Amino acid sequence: MTQIENAWGAAPGAGYEALAATFRPIFAEIARQAPKRDLERHLPHDAIRSLKEAGFGAVRLPTAHGGRGASLPQFFNLLIELSAADSNVTQALRAHFGYAEDILNSKDAERRSLWFGRIAGGETAGSAWSEIGAAATLDRFSTNVAEKDGRLLLNGAKYYTTGSLFADWIDVGASDANGEGIAVAVRRDAEGVEVVDDWDGFGQTLTASGTTTFRNVAVEPEDIVVDDERFKYSSAFYQIVHLATLAGIGRAITTDVAKAVAERRRTYTHAAASRSSEDPQVLQVVGRIRAAAYAASAITLQAASSLERAYEAHFIDDPEAEEKANAIAELEAAQAQTVVSDLILEASTLLFDALGASATKKPAGLDRHWRNARTLASHNPRIYKHRIIGDFAVNGTPPPYQWRIGASAG
Length: 410
Description:
3 domains, four-stranded antiparallel β-sheet, Alkylation response protein AidB-like acyl-CoA dehydrogenase, Butyryl-CoA Dehydrogenase, subunit A, domain 3, Butyryl-CoA Dehydrogenase, subunit A, domain 2
């Protein structure tokens, strides 16, 4: 069935259904295994391998370079569908898609050619940027690249290295010998790289968002770029990946609760009908959940359109227009974040009102929706977003594009 026939609204772009048809059988298999993976904590190596083999990692690349040429709204719509299957898989690939987006925006022809070939060949990138502990918000990275005996060597440790365990490459934030910020790409299987699955959060448990260490890892000059040269709408891009993931969780909740209500035989003496599937109060809860998932998807795709405008503005050689498009994309992402998070967090709790106490049993796997949504909604804290949005509305203050997290300088 098409997206319209499923009542999720029109898909973005005339070619979307043909694009999605390639991946929907893989999504269906990923969804079939998702509850068991979560319950038994089996990392989704097979799921990610299937997507890589099908070219999912290259979906944004131009067709002339081995990709699918998907627009950003089409790309995010695909992420919503994937997230409805398993939100862990989407988040595990988030860093890769951000890296691919940076390559698409790069004005370095040699870098584009190098990475187009790698990505079209099925290779993916993970992420290693955050440093925990005493790392200060404004200090240089303690992870660094230095020259020794004529070689460039990377040393340091990172946390929240989401997806790196499944990737072929790792995108590392570091400092060079002068203390300048750089981005370094290294092979995950390179000598001196160690990726540990020690992520202990209660949600998104299969994303391998743990620790990665680098000990004298050899770095090639062509795999180093200056951090400030990376794509300007990256903060909004990464946030909208989270929103697409939340919207997909909303669809997964809708599927699971509708199925459970349809199959439920037990009822209460004071219920409004002899079957839950005929009880108007229960149906009202299910309808409210589905409406929340619909709205979350629509809002996410509207925000994705602002990213498409920012992407296109990058190539028109008008810095002022590009700056404006980036600011609007950041604001639209912030406005979407505050609403989508609320919608899906509420839906992940409401689902239990449509069912009995047996729905809380672990084998049912319904708790994973709240755990995953709550974990995702904790990224890039939304409590700051309302202030940023209000400051723009009242004072015209542009939003911050890039920010760091760490120990306070005070």
